[in-house]
């Protein structure tokens, strides 16, 4: 969940413009980007990048990661490219207007040896999770969350086709449906190696599950994280995850880089002042 009327969101080292994206900056994406384990010199595939948030967070965390980010929505893809272009990691993130299915076909049938893409050591996804609806009155954000062209089955089949033998796949999914994700993984021979339950508050039931999968079996790491004690009173665990990213945790304003400003819905280089710290609500 996030501030859906907000045109942009300023992080410590990058800025996300989101006025052309159905899915805005929100807690799900931030949790995934901060929680995911990153292998050394990772080759990363971000499935459904949206604004580019998770790809940018991973690039900030891993100076050597090379990232391919896929997005099927043209407007979101263009905005993600602009967000990446105005970040410090423009040379390490490539945003592609392509579906996962098309990307797999391209990788399996390369036109030349130079076009061959090795398997990814890390794959991440914040996938849609609403069943498809025929309603034409749904808002763009709800439509973006629907399992139209990327069902859970298709997602895991794509992951299985692209994941390195020593690689890992991380995702965030509704807690009430995470058993379905575990079942899809099992069918394809993937093992759950980490499983965190995400609660809005300690006394409330979990709303999300953070899951990590690998081809290698090991006893999964299980944990629980709560986001708030009360409204806007965040827990120490949540703060520890997001400390490198959110402005509220910057030691001083000079430590926050401002790579861009908004100009009629587009980004351009700027040396302007910091935007206010507007954290999405968990």
UniProtKB/TrEMBL annotation:
Its EC number is 2.1.1.223. It catalyses: adenosine(37) in tRNA1(Val) + S-adenosyl-L-methionine = N(6)-methyladenosine(37) in tRNA1(Val) + S-adenosyl-L-homocysteine + H(+). Keywords: Cytoplasm, Methyltransferase, S-adenosyl-L-methionine, Transferase, tRNA processing. It is found in: Cytoplasm. Residues 40-129 form the Methyltransferase small domain. CDD domains: AdoMet_MTases (cd02440). Specifically methylates the adenine in position 37 of tRNA(1)(Val) (anticodon cmo5UAC). This is tRNA1(Val) (adenine(37)-N6)-methyltransferase. It comes from Lyngbya confervoides BDU141951. The lineage of its organism: Bacteria, Bacillati, Cyanobacteriota, Cyanophyceae, Oscillatoriophycideae.
């Amino acid at each position: 969940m996030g501030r859906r009327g907000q045109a942009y969101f300023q992080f410590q080292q990058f800025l996300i413009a989101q006025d052309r994206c159905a899915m805005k900056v929100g807690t799900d994406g931030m949790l995934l980007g901060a929680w995911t384990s990153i292998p050394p010199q990772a080759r990363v595939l971000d499935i459904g990048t949206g604004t580019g948030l998770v790809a940018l967070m991973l690039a900030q965390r891993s100076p050597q990661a090379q990232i391919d980010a896929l997005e099927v929505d043209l407007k979101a893809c263009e905005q993600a490219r602009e967000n990446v272009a105005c970040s410090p990691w423009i040379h390490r993130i490539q945003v592609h207007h392509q579906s996962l299915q098309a990307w797999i076909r391209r990788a399996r049938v390369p036109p030349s040896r130079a076009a061959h893409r090795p398997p990814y050591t890390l794959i991440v996804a914040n996938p849609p999770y609403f069943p498809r609806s025929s309603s034409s009155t749904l808002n763009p954000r709800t439509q973006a969350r629907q399992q139209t062209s990327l069902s859970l089955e298709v997602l895991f089949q794509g992951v299985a086709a692209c994941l390195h033998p020593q690689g890992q796949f991380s995702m965030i999914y509704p807690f009430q449906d995470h058993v379905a994700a575990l079942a899809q993984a099992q069918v394809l021979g993937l093992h759950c190696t980490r499983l965190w339950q995400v609660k809005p508050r300690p006394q409330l039931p979990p709303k999300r599950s953070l899951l990590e999968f690998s081809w290698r079996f090991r006893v999964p790491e299980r944990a629980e994280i709560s986001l708030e004690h009360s409204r806007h009173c965040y827990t120490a665990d949540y703060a520890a995850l997001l400390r490198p990213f959110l402005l509220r945790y910057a030691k001083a304003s000079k430590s926050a880089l401002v790579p861009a400003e908004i100009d009629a819905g587009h980004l351009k280089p700027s040396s302007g002042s910091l935007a206010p710290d507007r954290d999405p609500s968990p």
